[in-house]
Structures are given as structure tokens and as C-alpha cells.
Amino acid sequence: MRSDSRLSRMLHVLIHMDRHEHSATSEMISKMLNTNPVVVRRTMAGLRERGYVSSEKGHGGGWTLARPLSEITLLDVYNALGEPHLFAIGPAGDQPQCLVEQAVNSALADAMQEAEALLLRRLGSVTLKQIADEFEAKLEARSAAAYSCAS
């Protein structure tokens, strides 16, 4: 199963959008993500429906943040993307009458439910502002290191 990077990619986009004064067009975002503008519009639509971004059509239009990053959690974006599968592993269904398969699937289901609940709680506790602040700190540290090397 191919991994689904939509959550990571949209978090990336939203933090970039916060750093820019002007709106971001679907074409600009698609170049950043190396994808098609139609894919960007379709993905951003879920974020717009939840009130995290807004869009303007026409010349000078594009996507803008509708809320500050401090009011958007990773879980908010995950939910706006339609709650994509969190894990690539899952139960087998080849032999549903097999008691071993049933026992294995039951054990996996319990573990997966616990892991999913933990991950969703964590996603709900992290705001995009926290990620942006971490980026800023790393950027400052890199700049300070570059300056000290040049001295």
C-alpha cells in the first residue's frame, strides 16, 4: 500500500501560506508540491469547507488562511482531508472461517484501535503554530551557526 502524504503536504502548505502576505494560487501550491493544480483545489476544498482556508477566484485571487495557525491542529487538517487511513497494515480476509485468522485479526484490531486512539489524541494536541515556531527556531539556529562560521 502506498503511503498517503496529503496530511504532511497540507501542513507544509498551510505553514508556508502563513509566512506570505499574499494569497497562494493553486498553480503556486501545485509547483511546491509537484502535483496538478486540480489536485490542489480538490484537497484545499476540504480545508475551505471546515473554515481553515478561504479562496478568491479571478485575477489576484487564490488561497488564504481563514484562521491563525494557533487555532488549527493536526487533527483538524486530518479530519478536513477525509480522515485518510493512518496505518498500512490491517487484518487478513482470505480465510474468514479460520479460527487462527480470527484470533490474529482480533489481536491486530485491538492493537490498531489503541494505536489509532493515541495518534489521534496526539494530532489533536499539536497546533500548526507549534510546528511553525519549531521551524523558526531551526531557521534562527541555522542563521546563527552560519554567522558564527563566517566570523
UniProtKB/TrEMBL annotation:
Pfam families according to UniProt: Rrf2
UniProt-listed InterPro entries: Tscrpt_reg_Rrf2, WH-like_DNA-bd_sf, WH_DNA-bd_sf
UniProt GO molecular function: DNA-binding transcription factor activity
An example Gene Ontology CC term for this record: cytosol
SUPFAM superfamilies: Winged helix' DNA-binding domain
Name under which the protein is recorded: Rrf2 family transcriptional regulator
